[in-house]
Amino acid sequence: MANTDYSRRPAKSQAAINGRVGPAIILIKPQLAENIGMVARSMLNCGLTDLRMVNPRDGWPNDGALAPSAGAERVLEQAQVFTTTAQAVADLQLVYATTTRHRDMTKDVKTPRSAATEMRVFSNDGSRVGIIFGRESRGLDNDDVALADAIVSVPLNPAFSSLNLAQAVLLVCYEWFIAADQTDASTLAIPKHTRAANKNEMVALFEHLEKELTECGFLRVEEKRPIMVRNLRNIFQRANLTEQEVRTLRGVITGLVSGNGKN
Amino acid sequence: MANTDYSRRPAKSQAAINGRVGPAIILIKPQLAENIGMVARSMLNCGLTDLRMVNPRDGWPNDGALAPSAGAERVLEQAQVFTTTAQAVADLQLVYATTTRHRDMTKDVKTPRSAATEMRVFSNDGSRVGIIFGRESRGLDNDDVALADAIVSVPLNPAFSSLNLAQAVLLVCYEWFIAADQTDASTLAIPKHTRAANKNEMVALFEHLEKELTECGFLRVEEKRPIMVRNLRNIFQRANLTEQEVRTLRGVITGLVSGNGKN
After folding, report:
1. How many CA within 13 A on the CB side of residue B227?
2. I need a surface site. Which of A34, A75, A167, B68 has the fewest CB within 10 A?
């Protein structure tokens, strides 16, 4: 107990404040309303709603952000404005500063993926987390970076790494979202009216095809027949056929055999 | 050998055609030049240069794409224009169609991360791969999807999943880039003129602090002393100090002891 630092782990009840969800996105002196709107859209794409700004150049609220938000008005309406970075992060326990520029500082530098995992751990424990982004023209001041626990830096083409503000927000928020996403990496989508073919149906298809290919003479060279049969079977195995598609293909074979397209 | 399908694995020399790098990004009937420019920027951010378009609405080339590309002119200049999707993907061995809309098709559906891994495998074997994106207003036609090997679908907030075209391109290209990126997930950046403190330096700092805290009476309660010392040592252990920072902190201790800020 004595060696445990609980200072950054408040009660879980503090996790969602005023209905705002997930990490706070904090824009320091954002310049373009269009970018603020696109940031709101990117946030909501990833399920985040806690937008904060420090001294937006053209004031707030700003109608210019509305159309680029593409329907994320809720995020804009809830946005909070502060006059200092310290105030904007005051209630947070874990803060990242996004930057690609090299800083002459001793500081943890994390990828968005690594930061997302850490943010999930803190959030699950009831901590409030946030990520600060600098103004479009010159990024974050060093004093803002010094208020953060760590730097998050997006690995990109080193010869062309400058991201638009909303793109940077999107990538960081996307990693946050994906870190807890349960989507199957790869799945076969099948229409509701059918199902994957079973092996009985597959073998019946193979035997139908092989019978017709034997009769028409395609498999007449006996020593090549086993290889040919295996190759053909593998083609259709790879296709992950549905039961309906097996019936379609058997109709295709019958149609081709009949010679005039009719069964 | 007989059961191996080599049809999709050409010679490695075909991997880079005309100097274009990585997967082709294929925009079907893109409407806004601004989006085409932002797509070029997102591609180059992730090291990709093979941009293809099928019937861009306002013709090509289009100067409106230049400024939004933010310096990715090279991608725009090399862009190829086709009149059919089939022509645009003719030289590719593996093609993904991006869509979030449910289609009544039997088709593999992959996350961008899963697709990126597969694209890397194919590319490393010398195959050409590509990803097709539909027009801004209504996405891909089903006939375009049927030309693809699989669907790639970005997991996002199901209540607000519509991405701007360039944002969708960015997320897919980002996963491609990250799939082969070697960046450490988390690293401590240290300025060149110093290095991480070694344990000899750390213990000397601890002993310096503990000696002064003993003398000033802070550690006077003998039974609490071991816990207090461990807690203090853990605070500074967690800070991952550099050798220079250890010297700074020892100066801080000396300064505080002297009472007037001078050594």
Report:
1. 9
2. A34
